[in-house]
Amino acid sequence: MLVPPWLSVPPPGYGGLEQVVAGLVDGLSRYGHAVTLFGAGNRHGTAARNFVSTNPDVQYERLGEALPELAHLARVNHLIDAADFDIVHDHTTIGPLVAGRRAVPTVATVHGNPVGEYGDVLSDTDEGVGLVAISHAQRRLNPGLPWVGTVHNALDLTGIPRKTVPGRGAVLWLARFSPDKGPDVAIRACREAGLPLLLAGKCNEPAERRYYDDVVAPLLGDDVEVVLNADRAAALRMLVDARCLIMPIQWEEPFGMVMVEAMATGTPVVALGRGAAPELVRSGVTGLVCDRAEELPAALRAAERIDPADCVAHVAENFSISRMALGYEAVYRQVVGEGVGQALLEPARVTVR
Which is it for the CA torsion 98, 62, 5, 264, positive or negative? Predict the structure, then answer.
């Protein structure tokens, strides 16, 4: 199991990819697989049989640079060649380009949108690499890539706090400060609905700080509270207390783990229906999915009618660690048994909805 060198697994705060991988490692381990986790830093909190670090320090301060990930991949490839593995599961951005040097097959989960520059990288994927989508919406954006399956991300429900009655607190927006996440849309929707808003955002990269200063800050008022760079424990407390989570996404969100986290606490999701949102949220049961931003205020007011128990049950049934682990196990078995070429011909056999 290969993760980027930016954060520990699981992450101390922001880091959806690392959170998902931590759950996957634990799930596979429970099913008897011997998992070796390759990452950076000197710690991990998973059930992996082995943890191999390519750098004593996580490289978060160099996030966005190419060399740290390239060096990480080069070191990993040397280590893989000297060991005995059945399959490599790669979660890095550029790993599919260098996976052909490995003596064992590779599957790579695509965590971003497979279009534009990233799509160009993925289109040059080595022929021995099979790609796994995290949503059907993501896969539809570039159906010509060498997909071998679709497996939804999952959440470990252990220790997740839950509400038993609908929340009466503020509406919560929880994301990174980016125009893609629509914090400005959230402010306007809550203001029109007459509801207070809590903006809890990741804001430690230069682009995030610029966007917050230039776009978000001028819109703030007494009806909006701001929390910056909350850790995971604080984020879960805010989700439990919230009336609902607002997700006014302005792009084709490939998954949106925070929606699953919200529903796991019993908090409904009010979202715009772009990307994977309609796959994750059962509109009218675990939240409300809107076609247009103008519909958000009414949906925010109506969210109090959603039963928290329905939200929790939906996550337990559809986004469990066991379900994700079994989905990936099916992908691994098909790729190892038949090779990527044959897996490409029959990807539906390993699709977990």
Answer: negative
d(CA 277, CA 256): 7
Phi-psi domain of 336 (left: phi exceeds 0; alpha: psi -120 through 50; beta: other): alpha
DSSP sequence for 202-266: E--SHHHHHHIIIIIGGG--TTEEEEES--HHHHHHHHHH-S-EEE---S--S--HHHHHHHHTT
Q: How far apart are CA 259 and CA 280, in angstroms?
A: 7
Whether the pLDDT of residue 99 is over 50: the answer is yes
Q: Cβ–Cβ contacts within 10 Å for residue 32, how many?
A: 6
Number of residues in the chain: 353
Percent of the chain with pLDDT over 70: 95
Q: Round to whole Å and give the CA distance between 199 and 178.
A: 12
C-alpha–C-alpha distance, residues 281 and 79, integer Å: 41
Angle at alpha carbon of residue 153, lines to 241 and 61, rounded to 5°: 80
Q: At 247, list the tokens.
A: 């997700």
Domains of the chain: 16-154+321-350 (3.40.50.2000), 171-317 (3.40.50.2000)
d(CA 108, CA 269): 29
**Tokens 């005995």, residue located:** 84
Could you give phi then psi for residue 227, rounded to 5 degrees? -125, 125
Here the contacts of 281-286 (C-beta below 8 Å, separation 24 or greater) are: 282/310, 282/314, 285/310, 285/314, 286/310, 286/311, 286/314
Asked if the model's pLDDT at residue 216 lies above 80, the reply is yes
Residue 313 has pLDDT above 70, yes or no: yes
